[in-house]
Write a structure and sequence with these properties.
Number of domains: 2
Distance between the termini: 78 Å
CATH class of the largest domain: Alpha Beta
Radius of gyration: 39 Å
CATH topology of the largest domain: BirA Bifunctional Protein, domain 2
Structural class: alpha+beta
Number of helices: 11
Helix content: 40-55%
Shape: elongated
Protein backbone atom coordinates (compact mmCIF):
# COMPACT_ATOMS: atom_id res chain seq x y z
CA UNK A 1 0.00 0.00 0.00
CA UNK A 2 2.80 2.38 0.89
CA UNK A 3 4.38 1.84 -2.52
CA UNK A 4 1.09 2.47 -4.37
CA UNK A 5 0.36 5.55 -2.26
CA UNK A 6 3.82 6.91 -3.04
CA UNK A 7 3.25 6.28 -6.75
CA UNK A 8 -0.09 8.13 -6.66
CA UNK A 9 1.40 11.17 -4.87
CA UNK A 10 4.33 11.30 -7.29
CA UNK A 11 2.00 10.93 -10.27
CA UNK A 12 -0.36 13.66 -9.01
CA UNK A 13 2.51 16.13 -8.71
CA UNK A 14 3.91 15.13 -12.10
CA UNK A 15 0.58 15.29 -13.94
CA UNK A 16 -0.49 18.71 -12.72
CA UNK A 17 2.92 20.16 -13.52
CA UNK A 18 2.83 18.59 -17.01
CA UNK A 19 -0.71 19.86 -17.61
CA UNK A 20 0.32 23.36 -16.62
CA UNK A 21 3.18 23.35 -19.14
CA UNK A 22 1.15 21.90 -22.01
CA UNK A 23 0.42 24.40 -24.79
CA UNK A 24 -1.77 23.86 -27.76
CA UNK A 25 -4.25 21.17 -28.68
CA UNK A 26 -1.61 18.66 -29.76
CA UNK A 27 0.29 18.81 -26.45
CA UNK A 28 -2.92 18.46 -24.45
CA UNK A 29 -3.85 15.38 -26.49
CA UNK A 30 -0.40 13.89 -25.79
CA UNK A 31 -0.98 14.55 -22.07
CA UNK A 32 -4.33 12.72 -22.17
CA UNK A 33 -2.79 9.71 -23.89
CA UNK A 34 0.24 9.60 -21.54
CA UNK A 35 -1.70 9.73 -18.26
CA UNK A 36 -5.37 8.95 -18.98
CA UNK A 37 -5.21 6.75 -22.04
CA UNK A 38 -5.73 2.97 -22.04
CA UNK A 39 -2.00 2.45 -21.59
CA UNK A 40 -1.47 5.63 -19.57
CA UNK A 41 0.29 5.87 -16.19
CA UNK A 42 -2.85 6.45 -14.10
CA UNK A 43 -4.73 3.67 -15.87
CA UNK A 44 -1.90 1.26 -15.02
CA UNK A 45 -2.18 2.17 -11.33
CA UNK A 46 -5.96 1.65 -11.36
CA UNK A 47 -5.46 -1.83 -12.80
CA UNK A 48 -3.13 -2.76 -9.94
CA UNK A 49 -5.61 -1.57 -7.27
CA UNK A 50 -7.76 -4.69 -7.73
CA UNK A 51 -4.87 -6.84 -6.44
CA UNK A 52 -4.78 -5.09 -3.07
CA UNK A 53 -6.58 -6.30 0.09
CA UNK A 54 -10.15 -5.07 0.40
CA UNK A 55 -9.51 -2.24 2.89
CA UNK A 56 -6.46 -0.96 1.03
CA UNK A 57 -8.33 -1.34 -2.26
CA UNK A 58 -11.06 1.03 -1.06
CA UNK A 59 -8.64 3.74 0.03
CA UNK A 60 -6.21 3.55 -2.91
CA UNK A 61 -9.01 3.08 -5.44
CA UNK A 62 -10.80 6.17 -4.18
CA UNK A 63 -7.62 8.27 -4.34
CA UNK A 64 -6.78 7.03 -7.85
CA UNK A 65 -10.31 7.72 -9.12
CA UNK A 66 -10.33 11.15 -7.48
CA UNK A 67 -7.04 11.97 -9.21
CA UNK A 68 -8.42 10.74 -12.53
CA UNK A 69 -11.56 12.88 -12.16
CA UNK A 70 -9.50 15.97 -11.25
CA UNK A 71 -7.20 15.49 -14.22
CA UNK A 72 -10.14 15.01 -16.62
CA UNK A 73 -11.83 18.18 -15.33
CA UNK A 74 -8.59 20.18 -15.50
CA UNK A 75 -7.94 18.93 -19.03
CA UNK A 76 -11.47 19.88 -20.06
CA UNK A 77 -10.98 23.41 -18.66
CA UNK A 78 -7.66 23.80 -20.51
CA UNK A 79 -9.24 22.71 -23.80
CA UNK A 80 -12.13 25.12 -23.26
CA UNK A 81 -9.73 27.98 -22.55
CA UNK A 82 -7.77 27.12 -25.67
CA UNK A 83 -10.95 27.18 -27.81
CA UNK A 84 -11.99 30.55 -26.41
CA UNK A 85 -8.55 31.97 -27.05
CA UNK A 86 -8.67 30.85 -30.67
CA UNK A 87 -12.17 32.24 -31.06
CA UNK A 88 -11.03 35.63 -29.78
CA UNK A 89 -8.05 35.57 -32.12
CA UNK A 90 -10.28 34.59 -35.05
CA UNK A 91 -12.53 37.59 -34.59
CA UNK A 92 -9.88 40.08 -33.52
CA UNK A 93 -11.05 43.26 -35.28
CA UNK A 94 -7.65 44.89 -34.79
CA UNK A 95 -6.02 42.47 -37.22
CA UNK A 96 -5.68 43.47 -40.89
CA UNK A 97 -8.14 41.82 -43.26
CA UNK A 98 -7.22 38.99 -45.59
CA UNK A 99 -7.56 40.22 -49.15
CA UNK A 100 -9.57 37.69 -51.19
CA UNK A 101 -8.22 36.63 -54.56
CA UNK A 102 -9.99 38.43 -57.35
CA UNK A 103 -11.18 36.75 -60.52
CA UNK A 104 -9.74 37.50 -63.93
CA UNK A 105 -11.39 37.65 -67.33
CA UNK A 106 -9.87 35.18 -69.76
CA UNK A 107 -7.66 36.89 -72.39
CA UNK A 108 -9.98 35.60 -75.13
CA UNK A 109 -12.91 37.30 -73.36
CA UNK A 110 -10.92 40.51 -72.96
CA UNK A 111 -9.96 40.74 -76.62
CA UNK A 112 -13.46 39.72 -77.76
CA UNK A 113 -15.01 42.53 -75.72
CA UNK A 114 -12.54 45.02 -77.15
CA UNK A 115 -13.24 43.90 -80.74
CA UNK A 116 -17.00 44.15 -80.19
CA UNK A 117 -16.70 47.69 -78.87
CA UNK A 118 -14.68 48.82 -81.88
CA UNK A 119 -17.17 47.46 -84.41
CA UNK A 120 -20.12 48.76 -82.45
CA UNK A 121 -18.53 52.21 -82.76
CA UNK A 122 -18.78 51.68 -86.53
CA UNK A 123 -22.46 50.78 -86.31
CA UNK A 124 -22.14 47.00 -86.61
CA UNK A 125 -24.81 44.88 -84.94
CA UNK A 126 -23.94 41.75 -82.94
CA UNK A 127 -25.61 38.53 -84.14
CA UNK A 128 -25.15 34.85 -83.28
CA UNK A 129 -25.69 31.49 -84.91
CA UNK A 130 -25.56 27.75 -84.13
CA UNK A 131 -22.29 25.87 -83.68
CA UNK A 132 -23.80 22.73 -85.23
CA UNK A 133 -24.42 23.37 -88.92
CA UNK A 134 -25.59 21.64 -92.07
CA UNK A 135 -23.35 21.24 -95.11
CA UNK A 136 -25.58 23.69 -96.95
CA UNK A 137 -24.92 26.63 -94.61
CA UNK A 138 -21.29 25.73 -93.84
CA UNK A 139 -20.23 25.08 -97.45
CA UNK A 140 -22.76 25.05 -100.28
CA UNK A 141 -24.39 28.43 -99.65
CA UNK A 142 -20.90 29.93 -99.38
CA UNK A 143 -19.92 28.66 -102.85
CA UNK A 144 -17.66 25.81 -101.74
CA UNK A 145 -17.64 23.28 -104.61
CA UNK A 146 -18.42 19.63 -103.75
CA UNK A 147 -14.78 18.60 -104.27
CA UNK A 148 -13.33 21.36 -102.07
CA UNK A 149 -10.87 19.87 -99.51
CA UNK A 150 -12.47 21.81 -96.63
CA UNK A 151 -15.59 19.63 -97.03
CA UNK A 152 -13.57 16.46 -96.42
CA UNK A 153 -14.04 14.55 -93.17
CA UNK A 154 -10.30 14.83 -92.63
CA UNK A 155 -10.66 18.60 -92.21
CA UNK A 156 -14.11 18.99 -90.58
CA UNK A 157 -15.86 17.39 -87.60
CA UNK A 158 -18.92 15.60 -89.00
CA UNK A 159 -21.63 14.48 -86.58
CA UNK A 160 -23.78 12.90 -89.32
CA UNK A 161 -23.57 12.72 -93.14
CA UNK A 162 -25.02 16.24 -93.54
CA UNK A 163 -24.27 17.70 -90.09
CA UNK A 164 -21.00 19.03 -88.68
CA UNK A 165 -19.48 21.39 -86.16
CA UNK A 166 -19.09 24.66 -88.03
CA UNK A 167 -15.59 25.25 -89.39
CA UNK A 168 -16.03 29.05 -89.53
CA UNK A 169 -18.58 31.69 -88.51
CA UNK A 170 -19.49 32.52 -92.13
CA UNK A 171 -22.72 30.42 -92.04
CA UNK A 172 -24.18 33.10 -89.77
CA UNK A 173 -23.98 35.55 -92.69
CA UNK A 174 -26.18 33.29 -94.80
CA UNK A 175 -28.74 32.79 -92.04
CA UNK A 176 -29.01 36.53 -91.41
CA UNK A 177 -29.27 37.43 -95.12
CA UNK A 178 -32.01 34.81 -95.59
CA UNK A 179 -34.11 36.50 -92.90
CA UNK A 180 -33.38 40.16 -93.57
CA UNK A 181 -33.09 42.57 -96.45
CA UNK A 182 -30.26 45.06 -97.03
CA UNK A 183 -28.79 47.25 -95.76
CA UNK A 184 -26.94 45.01 -93.29
CA UNK A 185 -24.00 45.72 -91.03
CA UNK A 186 -23.33 42.78 -88.69
CA UNK A 187 -20.55 40.98 -86.82
CA UNK A 188 -20.67 37.57 -85.17
CA UNK A 189 -18.28 35.99 -82.67
CA UNK A 190 -18.12 32.33 -81.76
CA UNK A 191 -16.29 29.03 -81.52
CA UNK A 192 -15.28 27.09 -84.62
CA UNK A 193 -13.91 23.60 -85.08
CA UNK A 194 -11.36 22.12 -87.49
CA UNK A 195 -9.27 18.97 -87.51
CA UNK A 196 -5.98 20.79 -86.99
CA UNK A 197 -2.98 19.09 -85.41
CA UNK A 198 -2.24 20.74 -82.07
CA UNK A 199 0.92 22.84 -81.96
CA UNK A 200 2.01 26.31 -80.84
CA UNK A 201 -0.17 28.05 -83.45
CA UNK A 202 -3.01 25.55 -84.13
CA UNK A 203 -5.81 24.07 -82.02
CA UNK A 204 -8.94 22.14 -83.12
CA UNK A 205 -11.19 24.62 -81.29
CA UNK A 206 -10.77 28.34 -81.85
CA UNK A 207 -12.76 31.58 -81.82
CA UNK A 208 -13.52 33.61 -84.92
CA UNK A 209 -15.10 36.98 -85.59
CA UNK A 210 -16.92 37.52 -88.88
CA UNK A 211 -18.09 40.81 -90.33
CA UNK A 212 -20.54 41.58 -93.13
CA UNK A 213 -21.81 44.76 -94.73
CA UNK A 214 -24.32 44.69 -97.61
CA UNK A 215 -26.11 47.56 -99.26
CA UNK A 216 -26.23 49.72 -102.35
CA UNK A 217 -22.91 51.12 -103.51
CA UNK A 218 -20.71 49.21 -101.05
CA UNK A 219 -17.17 49.01 -102.50
CA UNK A 220 -13.72 47.65 -101.68
CA UNK A 221 -12.82 51.12 -100.42
CA UNK A 222 -15.39 50.74 -97.65
CA UNK A 223 -13.82 47.41 -96.68
CA UNK A 224 -10.34 48.96 -96.53
CA UNK A 225 -11.61 51.86 -94.46
CA UNK A 226 -13.36 49.63 -91.89
CA UNK A 227 -10.42 47.22 -91.51
CA UNK A 228 -7.84 50.01 -91.34
CA UNK A 229 -9.80 51.71 -88.56
CA UNK A 230 -10.20 48.41 -86.68
CA UNK A 231 -6.58 47.24 -86.95
CA UNK A 232 -5.10 50.60 -85.97
CA UNK A 233 -7.53 50.78 -83.05
CA UNK A 234 -6.85 47.26 -81.75
CA UNK A 235 -3.05 47.45 -82.17
CA UNK A 236 -1.58 50.91 -82.77
CA UNK A 237 -2.21 53.95 -84.98
CA UNK A 238 1.37 53.53 -86.21
CA UNK A 239 0.99 50.11 -87.83
CA UNK A 240 0.98 49.80 -91.62
CA UNK A 241 -1.63 47.64 -93.36
CA UNK A 242 -1.19 45.66 -96.57
CA UNK A 243 -3.86 44.11 -98.82
CA UNK A 244 -2.68 41.33 -101.16
CA UNK A 245 -4.82 39.44 -103.70
CA UNK A 246 -6.06 36.08 -102.43
CA UNK A 247 -8.89 33.60 -102.98
CA UNK A 248 -11.92 32.56 -100.94
CA UNK A 249 -14.96 30.80 -102.43
CA UNK A 250 -17.43 33.25 -100.88
CA UNK A 251 -15.69 36.53 -101.81
CA UNK A 252 -14.57 37.98 -105.15
CA UNK A 253 -12.24 39.81 -105.29
CA UNK A 254 -10.55 38.52 -102.13
CA UNK A 255 -7.65 39.84 -100.12
CA UNK A 256 -5.18 38.64 -97.52
CA UNK A 257 -4.67 41.42 -94.99
CA UNK A 258 -1.34 41.83 -93.17
CA UNK A 259 0.00 44.32 -90.65
CA UNK A 260 3.55 45.53 -90.14
CA UNK A 261 5.22 43.35 -87.51
CA UNK A 262 4.41 44.66 -84.05
CA UNK A 263 7.59 43.08 -82.64
CA UNK A 264 10.22 44.52 -85.00
CA UNK A 265 8.19 47.49 -86.38
CA UNK A 266 8.47 46.09 -89.89
CA UNK A 267 12.26 45.69 -89.93
CA UNK A 268 12.19 41.89 -89.99
CA UNK A 269 12.49 39.31 -87.19
CA UNK A 270 11.83 35.64 -86.44
CA UNK A 271 8.19 36.37 -85.53
CA UNK A 272 7.40 37.69 -89.02
CA UNK A 273 9.72 35.36 -90.92
CA UNK A 274 12.09 38.30 -91.62
CA UNK A 275 9.45 39.78 -93.94
CA UNK A 276 8.33 42.65 -91.70
CA UNK A 277 4.66 41.64 -92.19
CA UNK A 278 2.24 39.41 -90.25
CA UNK A 279 -0.90 37.99 -91.88
CA UNK A 280 -3.89 38.88 -89.75
CA UNK A 281 -7.16 38.14 -91.60
CA UNK A 282 -8.94 37.36 -94.84
CA UNK A 283 -11.53 39.58 -96.51
CA UNK A 284 -13.18 40.47 -99.81
CA UNK A 285 -16.30 41.53 -101.64
CA UNK A 286 -19.22 39.13 -101.24
CA UNK A 287 -19.34 36.81 -104.24
CA UNK A 288 -22.42 37.48 -106.46
CA UNK A 289 -23.12 33.72 -106.36
CA UNK A 290 -23.55 33.94 -102.58
CA UNK A 291 -25.87 36.95 -102.96
CA UNK A 292 -28.06 35.02 -105.39
CA UNK A 293 -28.24 32.10 -102.94
CA UNK A 294 -30.01 34.38 -100.43
CA UNK A 295 -32.13 36.02 -103.16
CA UNK A 296 -30.25 39.34 -103.19
CA UNK A 297 -29.92 41.05 -106.55
CA UNK A 298 -26.14 41.43 -107.17
CA UNK A 299 -26.87 44.10 -109.76
CA UNK A 300 -28.42 46.24 -107.04
CA UNK A 301 -26.60 45.21 -103.87
CA UNK A 302 -22.93 44.67 -103.12
CA UNK A 303 -21.15 43.96 -99.89
CA UNK A 304 -17.95 42.93 -98.18
CA UNK A 305 -17.08 40.28 -95.61
CA UNK A 306 -14.07 39.57 -93.42
CA UNK A 307 -13.06 36.97 -90.86
CA UNK A 308 -10.25 36.63 -88.34
CA UNK A 309 -9.15 34.33 -85.52
CA UNK A 310 -9.51 35.91 -82.10
CA UNK A 311 -6.69 33.77 -80.66
CA UNK A 312 -4.35 35.18 -83.32
CA UNK A 313 -5.30 38.76 -82.44
CA UNK A 314 -4.82 38.02 -78.72
CA UNK A 315 -1.45 36.33 -79.28
CA UNK A 316 -0.15 39.36 -81.15
CA UNK A 317 -1.64 41.98 -78.85
CA UNK A 318 -0.56 40.28 -75.60
CA UNK A 319 2.66 38.77 -77.08
CA UNK A 320 1.68 35.16 -76.32
CA UNK A 321 3.85 32.58 -78.07
CA UNK A 322 1.74 29.41 -77.70
CA UNK A 323 -1.99 29.07 -78.47
CA UNK A 324 -2.25 26.09 -76.10
CA UNK A 325 -1.93 28.44 -73.13
CA UNK A 326 -5.49 29.64 -73.78
CA UNK A 327 -6.86 26.14 -73.06
CA UNK A 328 -4.67 24.90 -70.20
CA UNK A 329 -6.40 26.96 -67.44
CA UNK A 330 -3.07 27.58 -65.74
CA UNK A 331 -3.67 30.26 -63.09
CA UNK A 332 -0.09 31.50 -63.41
CA UNK A 333 -0.93 32.45 -66.99
CA UNK A 334 -4.49 33.71 -66.44
CA UNK A 335 -3.57 35.93 -63.47
CA UNK A 336 -1.45 38.10 -65.75
CA UNK A 337 -4.58 39.56 -67.39
Amino acid sequence: MDYLETQLKKLAKETFLSLKKAKGKEELENFRITYLGRKGALTSILRRVKDLPLEERKISGKRANDLKRQLEESLKVRLSQLGKKREVEKFDITLPGIKPESGHLHPITLITNEIREIFQELGFEMVAGPEIETEYYNFEALNFPPEHPARDAFDSFYLAPDTLLRSHTSPVQIRVMERRKPPLRIITVGRCYRRDAIDASHFPVFHQIEGLMVGEGISFSHLKGVLTYFLQKIFSPDIRIRFLPSYFPFTEPSAEVSISCIFCKGVGCSSCGRSGWIEILGAGMVNPIVLRKVKYDPEKFTGFAFGMGIERIAMLKYKISDIRLFWENDLRFLEQF
